[in-house]
Amino acid sequence: MAEEKIAVHFVRIEHVVMARVMAFPESVRETLNIESAGDDNFLVASASGPALGREVLYLRGKEVMKDHKLMLYEYDCTKSAMEAIRAFTGLIEQWNKTQTTKSYLEGIKIEETLAGA
User: What is the Cα–Cα distance from 39 to 115, expressed in whole angstroms?
Assistant: First the structure.
């Protein structure tokens, strides 16, 4: 049985976050729903297609033609952007860890660029 994991590439430039789904198991298309526990309200889910919002990251869904769409969201500040990436990657790591015995960090790539650097 092939491993099923989610892989998302995140890029942050100051307070702007961009993301692209690099790998996604077909077995959870349109059914994935990973909610954060506690006081934060972050969600990683699969619905119609890739989209990024303040506290939600939608991955591949029923609109297959949009599977490789680049997502972008402009947060209020750099701190909020960093918190969102941390929350999304944590939810993805948590899901991947339950799906495989290999390194669950393998599918996540984060790049950060500071203006003027």
Answer: 32
